[in-house]
Specification:
This protein has 140 residues and is of the alpha+beta class. It has 6 helices and 5 strands; from the N terminus they run βαββαβααααβ. A 3-stranded antiparallel beta sheet has the order 3-2-4. Strand 2 and strand 3 form a beta hairpin. The chain is elongated. It starts with a strand and ends in a 5-residue tail after the last strand.
Length: 140
Amino acid sequence: MRPLTIDLDQIAFALNTEGLDHYLDLLSGKVLLIPEEDADPELETLLREEPERFLLVEPLGQGDELALMQEFLVEVVHPHAYAALEQALAGRKPARTFRHVLMEYPVLLEAWHAFEAARLRELAQDWLEENELQQARPLH
């Protein structure tokens, strides 16, 4: 494994951002957003000339997102919220409906955000390991 200084939160964000291309620069450890329109010409040239230097961070699929929501549901103890969230996940547009139901329960919404952030960081760490990368340890 190669040690790189990588911002785990940026990898987590890239995993959770559908519709945008994020690449990890294997030289600098930076996560780069490459928009489809108005992309930086220098960056586009670099991507073409040194493709081995960049690793695409593919976002999680809808199935992965729903799996996170199911994991969170197991921790919900409020009976009405549990039933509403369970129904949301079983219905049409489950992710959107799940988030909409959470808006009615501010404490649960906050808990969901904390849960999601923690799980995304774990998934980002897993992604690094799957790609045989590791974060460099900070020097003290």
